[in-house]
Every structure is written in structure tokens, then in C-alpha cells.
Amino acid sequence: MGKKPRLVRHAAAIFERRARHKECRFLRGKGGIGMIEAAIRLFKLRGWPFWFQNIALLLAGIPAAIWVGEYTSRNPGLLLQLAIVILLLIPAFILASTQSTYLIPYILLIWLVGAEIRRLADWSLGQFSSINLLSVSPLIVSGMLVFALAKQRIVMEPKAIELLKAYFIPFAYAAVIGVLLNKAAGIYSTANYFIPVLVFIYLAVNPPTEEQKEKWIRIYVTMAVVLSIYGWYQYVTLPPWDRFWMTSVNMVSLGTPEEFGFRIFSTLNSTGPLAVFLVSALIPAIVNKKWRGPFGLIGIPIMVSALALTLVRASWITLIAGVVAYFMFGSNANRWRMLAAVAILTVIGFIAFPLLPGGAEVTDRVSTLGSLESDQSANSRWGLLLYAIPEVLSHPFGTGFGSIGRSTALNGGEAFAGLGSIDNGYLGVFAAFGIFGGILYFRATWMQWSYTLNVDKRNPYRTLGIVNMVQLAVGFLFGGALFSLNAIIFWLFSGLIFTKTQNKDK
Fold first, then answer.
1. CA distance 41 to 26
2. What pLDDT band is residue 376 in, cutting at 50, 70 and 90?
3. Are 278 and 495 in contact (CB under 8 A)?
4. Which of 8, 280, 402, 486 could be 182's S-S partner, Cβ–Cβ 3.0 to 4.6 Å?
5. pLDDT, tens digit, for every residue of 190-243?
6. Closest C-alpha to 445, from 479, 487, 405, 407
7. Residue 142 within any structural domain of the chain
8. Alpha carbon of 315 to those of 273, 307, 444: distances in Å?
9. Where is the O-antigen ligase-related domain (predicted)?
């Protein structure tokens, strides 16, 4: 028998060494992280020769490849989607295999541009579908964190473990109810709740250094500026792929699909997630010049102007809440820097916005914050809230994941109390988790708040974590959930707080 390929010999040596030291948690009944390694060990324990394993894999792979080839040949759209997903997975696989510090930024990037990639694919094929393989590409790419974690021993700080346990109980309950009641929507929603938690676990197991944290925040802010620039380009020109998507989804709240006639969503799937991301990036950019990235100070007004074009009024309230939180918990020097920056931006905004394309609409939209009683949108939201409260109370055990939000599209639009959205995150929690599950959920958030306050005050990421939690709490008044991109942002800042600083650069 010829010499085995070098990569195969290397993988076999790793698995054999881990098997010898009994690090495969799956066989010891302590979780599924070592499942792949367990399968390899199972082959070895049965005494099957390595050449036999290769033949078995080949025999299993050939019919699978034939089936995939035949099926995709009849579905060119699926073939394109599959090719794109593989192209997105390859960098993630390489970064996870090498334990690169760019794995987390790459995953965040896919969450930010995944919707735009899907729009480009739909436009190139001339067909639109509400849910397809590219819809879950951020989840698939984020799943590479499991592969990265499978290669190492899982050791976390006790506080991180306590926090995960506190969230896991209500999450698991809502997941079971959601899968049973909401089927595919429940599965999709469960993945969007659980997979983002892997970011926190990964950071807890692989504590980043201060240099790595600074690098990530710079990349984070840079991404926000780039999305803002594309948002302006989108607003002025409306690229054909974005126009095609707007026409297909017929989302009235976005506006009309023509230049200067809509609310920008940049590379995301709606204005809300874009506003959340921009708000989360603005405060780091304002308070610390090390976090601003290559755009420097000019990036701040670019982000503010793009935030204005989303016409999401709740984002301004959330931003103000974040500024107040930073003023209360930040260092003295950064407090005054924050106030000075806000004052300057306010003056510039009042002068410049009316002169910009669509500026009058932005000014009118913001001015309605002072007269909400005459605002139709605010009144509709209030009426929806009053309708939803008795519906939530009539479902004390909750309706599980997949009962509200975008995932209801997988159930043909069937949603909680006939509502696609409750427009209140707090009621949304009780609708999905039930009364008892909702209490457990908010208990977990209270634990996290307490832990965050007890972090060393000299840690700059403590204040960012507090601001993140305050903004999430305020944002819940207008909708949202610890779901999808919101969850990625939440767990990222949580991981930066609770992990220790290492001297070793991975």
C-alpha cells in the first residue's frame, strides 16, 4: 500500500493523540463538540483499516455527488447559491483551522453583506424567493466556530459559564416549543438565537489580547463607515439589484424604489438592522481615536448622515441613551470628548441636513419626535401594543421561537396572534418564551448587567458593554430581539468584556 498523503497522516496523528489523552468529549458524554473526532475514533476502535475507510467514504461520496450534480443541473439557481456558499465557507474554514484573529471579523462581515450577496444572486438569475440557501449563509459561516472550538479544550471563566447557563434554560425551552409548534420557522429562529452565542463562547475560550480587541473595534467601525458610504451610493443611484429586491419584496415602509425616494438599508435586509449597527459603531468611534480606523474623524459624520437616511427615529433615542450611559460610566476625559462631539455633530446636522438630498424629509421625520400624538406611525405602534398585551397573557406558556419576526415567512406568514411583529421587544420575549421563560430570560440579562458593572473600571470595554446593554434595553421598547445580527453584536461586546487579556497573540 502506498504512502498516505501528508494531510491525511497529519489529521490521523492529531486524532490519535487526542484519543490517547481522552479529549474527545462526545464519547465521554460531555457534549457534541468532539463529534467528528469521535467518529474517527469509532473507526479505529472497530479496527477498520485506513484504506477501507477511504473506500467507504468514496463509495458514499460518489452517489451523493451524482445526486447533487443531477439535482442542481435542473435548478441553476440552487447551483449558483451552493457555489456562493462554498466560496464564503472556504475563507472561514481556513481562518478557523489556523485559529486566526480575523475569524470573528470575517463572520461579522458575512452577516453584514450576506443580504446584498443574495440580492446580487437573485438579480443575476432574474428570480426572487423569500427564503433560499443564501438566506442562511451567515449561519453556515458562523458554524465554523464549532469547527474552531472542536480543535481545543473548552475552558471558560466561571462567570461566563454561569451566564451561558442562565441564557440556555429559557432559550432551550423556547426552542423546543418553537420547533414543535412552528416547524421550519422554529428551526430557523432557533439557529438565529443559538449560533450567535458561539461568538461569546469562542471569545471566552480564546481570550483576545488588548491589541486584538483594538483591531476588532477598528475593523468594526470601518465596516460601519463603508456600509454608510454604500448607503449613500444606494440612495443616490439605487443599483439595479437593490431596485429588483425592493420591487420584489414590496416592503411599503422602505418607500418607493427610485432615487432619493426610499429609506436606505445599505447591504442589510432592512433599515432597522442597519440603524442598530451604525448606532453600535458610533460611540466607539467618538470616544477613542484608536478605534476609528482608516477614515478617522470623517467617518463619524458619514455614519451619522447614513443613520439619518434610514429614517429610523428609534435609533436616535437609542443613540442618546448610549451617550447618556457613556457619560455616566465612562472615564472623565472620554465623557467631555463625547459631549463635545455630540454638540458639534448636532450643530453640523442642523446646518447641513436641510441642504443634502432628502434632507427635508430627514428633518421632518426627526421633528415628529416632539409631537408623537399626531404621528400616525407612533399611534399605530401604540395600538398594536395594546392589542398584543392580552394576546401575550392568553399564551402564558409562550409560542416558542419562530412565532414572531421574519422567520414566520417559513410558516406561510402564520405568526403570533396574527402579527408578524409585536413592535416591542419585551412583549416579544414573553410571547416567545412564555411568562416563566420570559422571567428567566430577564434574570439572565440582569445577571449580565451585574457582571458587567463589576468588571474592572479601567477596562475600556466595560463601558462599551454597558452602553451596548443600555442600547439593547432601550431598543427593545421599539421592537427587536436577541436574534440574528442583533445577537452577533450583543455577544461580541459581551465577549470583549468577560474574557481575560492574554499575552500570547494567537
1. 11
2. low
3. no
4. 402
5. 999 999 999 999 999 988 888 999 999 999 999 999 999 999 999 999 999 999
6. 487
7. no
8. 10, 8, 25
9. 302-442
Q: How far apart are CA 344 and CA 357, in angstroms?
A: 21
Please list, in sequence order, all residues whose beta carbon lies within 8 angstroms of the beta carbon of residue 191, skipping any fewer than 6 positions away.
136, 139
* Cβ atoms of 494 and 448 closer than 8 Å: yes
In the block, cell 480606523 appears at: 293
* Spatial CA neighbour of 316 closest among 275, 285, 260, 373: 275
CA nearest to 277, candidates 450, 23, 486, 80: 486
Of the residues 55, 70, 85, the one at which a domain ends: 70
Domain with 319 in it? 210-373
**How much is the pTM?**
0.81
Q: Please, are residues 384 and 422 in contact by the beta-carbon 8 Å criterion?
A: yes
Residue 391, all three cell numbers: 394576546
In a domain, residue 24? The reply is yes
- C-alpha 97/C-alpha 10 separation (Å) is 13
Q: Which cell is 506 given?
A: 494567537
Statement: residue 172 has pLDDT above 50: yes
Q: Could you give the 3-state DSSP secondary structure of residue 137?
A: helix
Residue closest to 92 by CA, chosen among 71, 107, 111: 107
Question: Could you report the per-residue pLDDT of 45-86, keeping only the tens digit for each?
Answer: 445 566 666 677 677 777 777 776 776 666 777 888 888 999
Q: Specify if 433 maps to a domain.
A: no
Residue 103: name the closest of 25, 188, 215, 224 by CA.
215
| Count: domains in the chain | 2
Boundary-marking domain end, from 373, 391, 408: 373
51 class by beta-carbon count within 10 Å (0-12 exposed, 13-18 middle, 19+ buried): exposed
* CA–CA dist 123, 117 (Å, integer): 10
pLDDT digits (tens, 9 = 90+) for 411-464: 655 555 445 566 788 888 998 999 999 999 999 999 999 989 888 888 888 999
